[in-house]
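Journal club prep, notes for RB
We'll compare a predicted complex against what the paper describes. Inputs for the acetoacetyl-coenzyme A case:
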Amino acid sequence: MDEVSAEVVSRRMDGTAAILTISNPPVNALSHAVRDGLMIELRDLRDDTSVDAVILTCAGRTFCAGADISEFDKPTRQPDLSTLIAELASFAKPTLAALHGTTLGGGLELALACRFRVAHRTTRLGFPEVKLGLIPGAGGTVRLPRLIDPGAALEMITTGRLINADEAEFMGLVDAVTDDGVVSAAIEFTHEALAEGKRSKSTRDSGRFQEAGIDWDWLEQEKISVQQKARGLLAPVKAAETLIAGLHLPFEEALANERSTFELLKEGEQSRAQRYLFFAEKEAAKVSTLPASTLPRSIETVGVIGAGTMGRGIAMALANGGISVLLHDADRDALERGLAGIRDVYASSVKRGSLNEDVAKQRVALITSSPNVEGLAQCDLLIEAAFEDKAVKRQIFETLNAVAKSGAIFATNTSYLDPSELGLLSGRPADMIGLHFFSPAHVMKLLEVVRTPSTAPDVVATALSLARTIGKIPVVVGICHGFVGNRMLAARTAELEQLLLEGATPQGVDRAFTEFGWPMGPFQMADLAGLDISWRNRRSLGKKADIADTLCERGQFGQKAGMGYYDYRAGPREPQPNAELVELTARLASEKGVDRRRIETQEICERTLFPMVNEGLRILDEGIVARESDIDVVWANGYGFPRGKGGPMFWARTLGYKKVAEALQEWHSRTGREVFRPSSALSALK
Ligand code: CAA
């Protein structure tokens, strides 16, 4: 063993094979130091006649997770990744990448530049650049479709989907998969290759691209489909265009085209916003007020109380993370319906091909049920997901206090009630926390972790650790009505009725939202969620909303009732204007003396989104969240705020808080409505 360097890149020999190991924790990102270290080693090895082959490997939990994203806002330092990869790809002696962990982005590009790839069976590979508003920038769109089926390459690169090692082997992306040590397997593979004189072609001139021909029509169809699904995001569209253009172009020109598109996207607002969110999501999980020594409690079985929509979703979210769930509902029929609903969701995922049948079976098996509370005694965490009614929740927590074991954590999925009050009612305030999931809970990434003044630090630490286990993005929030998300949603919603009265239509408002990049507009969303939920909430607060209340009084609760802001009688996918609503808004406007006019998109956005930003700053000012970016994480992951705009606060900063404040001031002077009054926090930022 010949140790040349103890730096981020080290070299050792195994016979005539040189093994280069990258060590740049935590994810071996390809920082300048790594690129520089690799370049020095490769230049040294190129002409070293005592070396027959080069094996590239990484220390720690993963092969390279890609370029170092934190360097993207700084000038590029040489050697850049493309230069490094060109050096590696031009090696005449066999080169091999030994992959483990997550081999992503630039890391996969490095591997593609090698002649061979050997992967541990647990490896996951992919190009997640589109999630950062980017495309691969160092040959990914050029080499991958020359190595594997171009259609499969297009799908991987435009969606950012990760594949596992078996799938990669099947596609021809890796040459061998091992269950043992990947470096030993790579060494063995290399020595065999050398003995047999095996010289795989480089991806530049490889196989299927040359042999099978390309179904250009199909690729063009796929490009159109990517465009239709992109919702204003540039990166997936550019990824498809660049990949297809790259197949038409000579290799070097294709690389240059990819590079310039990557650079353009990197400088653009969308990628800046998406990179900001990447780091904001990591930050949100860090709670500076938790003592570093805080250890989470052990969670093996979770009891979920309530088998309605939220309870089922939470049960599935937990089972998807490998956690055993005991679903409880005192109403046996509701419990049966809940379990059947869960089985249906998994069965339709299997049918759609998005879930393997065995995995679905394992997840279903993790969810058991009990109509008796006594069954909950063994649970380490109890999540109440019952009807949003204080008396109902009070009774549940009193019962849980009587049956739950000591040290069990009590959580409420309440959207509006104060978890500290529920904590007192439970008799175990230190064990109480809010875990606010978002519907559908097995899909939506956000978890608002509501910390009460009494919540014990290890309960908060457990919530954060659980969120990680089940793939949720946690944001720790303090107590206020609606917490972060729903409180800001109320500010967004405040002007909707008034807009309808003044002449806007649900279709017009929803279109303004989808053009902005939201997956759906507020009226579509209200119809989907059901108008009765906010009706009940309004009544409990003694509030009124003339239009929505009238719809509810008529039983027009949204999609589930066939009528709401839209008419769904022709089917849920074919919403038509609700003629009764047209008549209702016109009548109410005339009764109230409201002049009706055409309302432009910009006005719709200002009157709905600026109040939301204003409320966000109040929330920050009150210390409900630790940082401004936490608010963006809530909105991007729980409410579909377009990721390409970074979240409401990032978007407002980009526009300029001054502009937001001036517009709100103008609306406030014109209407006198409180929702427009600039908060002191916003005024201070001007
Ligand atoms: N660059 C810089 N930092 C990175 C990074 C990257 N590519 N990937 C992860 N990190 C950092 C995280 O910010 C985090 O830092 P803190 O501990 O300071 O918060 C740390 O590494 C650990 O990350 P996670 O908490 O996310 O760890 P995990 O084990 O849950 O997940 C991962 C690991 C799957 C690699 C995940 O971090 C991830 O998906 N990273 C992004 C990968 C990516 O997008 N790669 C493409 C980069 S762009 C590119 O490569 C373009 C090109 O073609 C040149």
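Talking point for the session: Confidence is low (pLDDT under 50) at residues 1-6.
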